[in-house]
Design a protein that fits this description.
The complex is a heterodimer of chains A (114) and B (114). Chain A has 114 residues and is mainly beta. Chain A is built from no helices and twelve strands. In chain A, 32% of the residues are buried. The chains are: A mainly beta (114), B mainly beta (114).
Chain lengths: 114, 114
Amino acid sequence: AQSVTQPDIHITVSEGASLELRCNYSYGATPYLFWYVQSPGQGLQLLLKYFSGDTLVQGIKGFEAEFKRSQSSFNLRKPSVHWSDAAEYFCAVGIIQGAQKLVFGQGTRLTINP
Amino acid sequence: GAVVSQHPSRVICKSGTSVKIECRSLDFQATTMFWYRQFPKQSLMLMATSNEGSKATYEQGVEKDKFLINHASLTLSTLTVTSAHPEDSSFYICSARDSGSEAFFGQGTRLTVV
């Protein structure tokens, strides 16, 4: 069955520091991979997505992610975080068959220290 | 990007009553809409997938008679929580997909049953 694992429930980094959020997936075919961000009480905003091609994808707000098939990973990175990046981050895999549902990871809560 | 509007953003209802949540795609036609439920500090769990003009497909364990989904047009899907109970209190999020491969999310609805 398809699944997504985000090993880190909560991460705290200092403002200006680099960030990496981990994501591992389990899916039998070539995955569609997504990273979303959710602010408290809000819906989800798409940061970036990988469908095919270049394994390093650039997203909004200075985020990037790298697809590594051999490791079944799609880690999210940002070289220098801002206080406004504090939020919940979700990795998701798109199930291509049928209606293309999204299976989400458990989420990683990011806290930024001033 | 495309906009999905969800209404209401918050609702409080009495136990035993029914509540309707609307999800509208404002600037595109949504061939498929998805309804998710999110418990506090947890991930999004897909409840059902709906296609315009056809019956919704519910995920395993979701009561179709309790969570009524109607997708009457290409821009509107509704979720009705019937005979609501306190355990139905949750954050409900819809997403909509056009003919492409990206899903756009609404702002979410916080349902509190008292």
